[in-house]
Amino acid sequence: MWRYGGHGIRIGKIDGKKVLVLSLPRMKYIRLKLRNSKWGYVIISTKNIESVLNYIRQEIEIYGKD
């Protein structure tokens, strides 16, 4: 996460798109590519990646893909 200036809430760029980073020390992270947003990506630190992915899947199922 030092690529984005350390831990905490950071803003960076990937491929010219703005990135919002929520980074905690010694945690794994996931990178989500967003559509129709001012952010190209969101990077989130988490202890349990599978739980976050399951939550995202449920939200997509409830609210749809768009």
Specify the helix fraction band.
10-25%
Derived from helix and strand composition plus strand pairing, the structural class reads: alpha+beta
Tertiary shape: flat
Radius of gyration: 13 Å
Order of strands side by side in the largest beta sheet?
1-2-4-3
Q: Count the helices. How many?
A: 1
Count all strands and give the number: 4
> Biggest β-sheet, characterized?
4 strands, mixed
The CA-CA distance between the termini, in Å, is: 29 Å
Portion of residues in beta strands equals 35-45%
Number of self-contained structural domains: 1
Provide structural commentary.
The structure is a single chain. The protein has 66 residues and is an alpha+beta fold. It has one domain. Strand 1 and strand 2 form a beta hairpin. The chain contains 1 helix and 4 strands; from the N terminus they run ββββα.
Can you describe this structure in just a few lines?
The chain has one helix at residues 49-63; strands at residues 8-14, 17-23, 28-33, 41-46. It has 66 residues and is an alpha+beta fold.
Please specify the SSE layout and strand pairing.
Layout: E1 8-14, E2 17-23, E3 28-33, E4 41-46, H1 49-63
Parallel strand pairs: 2-4
Antiparallel strand pairs: 1-2, 3-4
Keywords:
alpha+beta; 66 residues; 4 strands; four-stranded mixed β-sheet
